[in-house]
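Re: beginner question about structure tokens

> Can someone show what the tokenized structure looks like for a real chain? I only ever see the sequence side.

Sure, here's an example I had lying around. Input first:
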Amino acid sequence: MCTTTRINMIATGNNIARLRKEKGISVKQIQEVMGFNTPQAIFKWQRGETMPTLDNIVVLSELFNTTIEEIVVIER
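And the corresponding structure tokens:
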């Protein structure tokens, strides 16, 4: 039997925004750590419009001092 597993992008974005605020980290600080020219990708993550790449999720988990599972919301 095949089950569908997917990432809930809205809930994941909410987690990114919540963790960022809880840790007192600005979008600008994430932008600088990631080496992005603009903060648009981070705002899109927080709105659940796009997902960070796996390597960026790893960086976020280190920046927020948490696990990937705390950031990414998986629905089964």
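Each token stands for a local structural state, so reading them left to right follows the chain. The first helix runs from residue 9 to 22.
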